[in-house]
Amino acid sequence: ARNMVDNFAYLIDTLGFIPNGTRNYYLSRSQPPFFTLMVTALARKDSMVLAEYLPMIEKEYDFWMAGKDVIEKPFEANKYVVKIGDDSFLNRYWDSSVTPRPESYKEDYHLADDLATQKEKTDLYVNLRAGATSGWDFSSRWYAEEDSFESTNTANILAVDLNCLLYFMENQIAKGYSLKGDKQAESLYREKALKRKKLIQETFWVEEEQFFMDFEFITKRNTDEFTLAATYPLFFNIATKEQAEAVKEKLIAEFLKDGGLLTTLKNTGQQWDAPNGWAPLQWMAVHGLLNYGYKEEALDIMKRWLAINERVYENTGKMMEKYNVEDISLLSGGGEYETQDGFGWTNGVALGFKAMVDQMEGQ
Questions:
Q1: Which positions are catalytic?
Q2: Distance separating the N- and C-terminal Cα atoms of the chain
């Protein structure tokens, strides 16, 4: 774990961010900012680890916030940043290149074939690249029109999960400066985190739906997509008790299936939609629920997820990248490539859940 964090720290130190992959053609886009969470995991045994990696955490934060000072009007964007009000900013997924993705050039080129103008094609390429930046490549979460992959609109959407990650980053930078004894810098980042927390509450909570939902800043309204990204405010303790209760009710009533939690409620043929479940999102959801005292529900999700992991392993001899949680007799599918064998997140979450179930049931 230390070696992986050191490798990511080197990438941030030399490039300013962690690319979507360590190939030259990924240098136009970042991975979602999970680096701070990795450092925090290492710091569980030694709190000074956070201070050690603080320069890289702050450098990555500066990358995500770069260009905000030149935005003049609310709901205008520059790079990864969108201005919300006077001195108020939230973030989007984005990519600086305007061509088809090199790793999926043919697919992107043909998807844009029917678009009338070069600007429409360029916009689609940017939105597809931004979808890859999000990690959710691809999902109805990013569609501007129902059942329309070519309407992928990622770069025009303020993403609830991304902004929760940046809130956490601001809090941890404040904590790192506290460890170093720099009260002024600590106070500055505490204020940033508090401001973002308030913006997350105001921007992403949809009272009518009782759920956290992304915000389309061009139309200035929330999207109508229900996704597991709504669990991030619970994972990071941003949600109120009432909001957590409402999200929990929705998860149990609509997302929970025999094999665990669906990623979204729509089956579009994209891999980050129903019927697929993904290990990292199960992890975020379970810990989010536990943060608010929902032990029984968290335990149920973990047991269902472990059961499908073990059933597929018994049948195939493999752990999988993702699972069909809706029909546990079938493997997962959809997306641009065949379901992959293994994945560290599947293995790690399975081991983590097994330990947690044993501990909770032993209490």
A1: 137, 321
A2: 29
